[in-house]
From TrEMBL:
GO biological process, one term: tRNA processing
Record-listed ATP binding positions: R73, N77, T131, S157, S165, R208, Y247
Family, similarity comment: Belongs to the SUA5 family.
GO cellular component: cytoplasm
Classification via PROSITE patterns: YRDC
EC category: transferase
Pfam families, A to Z: Sua5_C, Sua5_yciO_yrdC
InterPro entries: DHBP_synth_RibB-like_a/b_dom, Sua5-like_dom, Sua5/YwlC_C, Sua5_C, T(6)A37_SUA5, TC-AMP_synthase_SUA5
Location(s), subcellular: Cytoplasm
Protein name, UniProt field: Threonylcarbamoyl-AMP synthase
Gene Ontology MF terms in the entry: ATP binding; double-stranded RNA binding; L-threonylcarbamoyladenylate synthase; tRNA binding
Length: 340
């Protein structure tokens, strides 16, 4: 497989017809077709280690608007920009604090997004304030696409707004059948979105818990502040993943401390159960998904399990609340928003 970047001024011949929803392997031809689409100011879905992203040229307002249109994403919800190198990240920032260098050195490529002051030449992909969220993904396909295109790629999750994030190419196509091309890199290994840390505040502030645990971040930054209030939908925010309802199945979803306390009389049937190893055995449920009792492994299969229950026709999903410990913070965040 060739990793040679396509020169920025190269003209990629439009000799291949790309039908909407085409899923292709990430070989040299698949990457060539993806670069062609991105350079035409359209979008491509691609795998990262967290979830599949819907990528577009971060410098193109037309391409960015296509992300919002396909996802039916509200305009106040900003995007994360993916780059291939720390140098490319610095080029998008008006200020690059020393803490950013230490965090990048420790965790990039990887599931950490940093919010910094935005460079004035980047106008289409940032938040409504003067910030930009940036990360280097750890998936080899994502990195090859970034290198081949020579573009920073704004890329939220490749699914309809508020619905379950995709962790396979098939999830992408079912949610966004009109996406021009999907690079199939197999199932995502982390299965949950990146951790987002705001470096524009006096103390680094956690905006979205995610795949990278707080304990690891504190080893580099020391104290990390937590937001003291939820961000109201419709208002500006520096990061995605802060909406009240997000990551939600089609089925009515309830998060319960004790599944035996649920009043099932008004719930759409069939009722499905999502629980984990070591939790009390579910007292009912026509469909039951039992995930790992390890928070890292649970997170890796969470969205896939919700997709399976939705696809099986669950009318309602009752979820056993996981432990209230910091190790489960990202999982609990996703479940609370899914059940909002």
């Amino acid at each position: 497989m060739s990793n040679r970047a396509v020169p920025p001024d190269a003209v990629v011949p439009p000799d291949a017809v790309v039908l909407p929803g085409a899923v292709v392997p990430p070989d040299a031809e698949g990457l060539r077709r993806a670069v062609q689409i991105l350079r035409a100011d359209s979008v491509v879905a691609f795998p990262t280690e967290t979830v599949y992203g819907l990528g577009a040229n971060a410098f193109s307002k037309q391409a960015i608007s296509e992300i919002y249109r396909l996802k039916n994403r509200p305009s106040w919800n900003p995007l994360i920009v993916h780059v291939a190198t720390v140098e490319a990240a610095r080029d998008l920032a008006a200020e690059w604090p020393e803490t950013a260098d230490r965090l990048a050195g420790a965790f990039w490529p990887g599931p950490l997004t940093l919010v910094v002051r935005r460079a004035p030449h980047l106008t289409g992909a940032g938040a409504d304030n003067d910030t930009i969220a940036i990360r280097i993904p750890a998936h080899p396909v994502a990195l090859r696409l970034l290198e081949a295109s020579g573009l920073p790629l704004a890329a939220p999750s490749a699914n309809r707004s508020e619905s379950i994030s995709p962790t396979t190419a098939e999830h992408v196509v079912r949610s966004l059948p009109d996406v021009p091309l999907v690079l199939d890199g197999g199932p995502c290994s982390w299965g949950i979105e990146s951790t987002v840390l705001d470096l524009t505040t006096p103390v680094p502030t956690l905006l979205r818990p995610g795949a990278l645990p707080l304990r690891a971040l504190r080893d580099v930054t020391g104290t990390i502040a937590l937001r003291d209030a939820e961000t109201v939908d419709g208002t500006a925010r520096p990061s995605p993943g802060m909406s009240r309802r997000h990551y939600a199945p089609r089925a009515k979803t309830l998060l319960l401390r004790d599944l035996s306390d649920a009043d099932r009389s008004g719930l759409p049937a069939p009722a499905a159960i999502l629980t984990y190893e070591g939790a009390p055995s579910p007292p009912y449920g026509e469909m039951v998904e039992v995930l790992s009792g390890d928070p890292r492994e649970y997170a890796a299969d969470l969205y896939a399990a919700l997709h399976r229950l939705d696809d099986a026709g669950a009318g309602s999903i009752l979820i056993q609340e996981p432990p209230r410990s910091e190790d489960w913070l990202a999982v609990r965040d996703r479940l609370f928003r899914a059940a909002a």
